[in-house]
C-alpha cells in the first residue's frame, strides 16, 4: 500500500537556505540528504556535474562565485 502524506506535513519535506557569496567562494555549509539536494546560483539550477554534495553537511561548487551571487540550496526528505 502506498505511503500517504498529509498536506499538513508537506512543509517538512524540504529545507532550504540562501547565501550571498564572496568572490571565488565554492564551499558552503548546508545539511541535506545525499542525492536529494538542488543547487541554484542567481536563480539558475545547477546540474549535478556542477557541484559536489556527498557528505550531507557541505556542498562544493565546481566554479567560484562572483561577489554578491545568491546561492540557494533546497534539500528534500527521502520518502
Q: Order of helices and strands, N to C?
A: EEEEEEE
**Largest sheet data:** 4 strands, antiparallel
What is the CA-atom radius of gyration, in angstroms?
A: 14 Å
The helicity comes to: under 10%
**Oligomer description:** single chain
Gross morphology: elongated
Note the gap between the termini. 14 Å
Structural class: mainly beta
Tell me the strand percentage band.
35-45%
Mean pLDDT: 91
Spans of at least 5 consecutive residues with low confidence: none
**Number of helical stretches of at least 4 residues:** 0
Overall number of domains: 1
Please provide the count of β strands: 7
The neighbouring-strand order within the major sheet is 1-7-3-4
Question: Please, could you describe this protein's structure?
Answer:
It is a single chain. This protein is mainly beta and 79 residues long. It is 0% helix and 38% strand. It has one domain (17-76). It has no helices and seven strands. A four-stranded antiparallel β-sheet has the order 1-7-3-4, with no helix packed on it. A three-stranded antiparallel β-sheet has the order 2-6-5, with no helix packed on it. The model has no long low-confidence stretch (mean pLDDT 91).
Outline the fold blueprint.
Blueprint: E1 14-20, E2 27-29, E3 37-41, E4 44-45, E5 51-52, E6 58-61, E7 70-76
Antiparallel strand pairs: 1-7, 2-6, 3-4, 3-7, 5-6
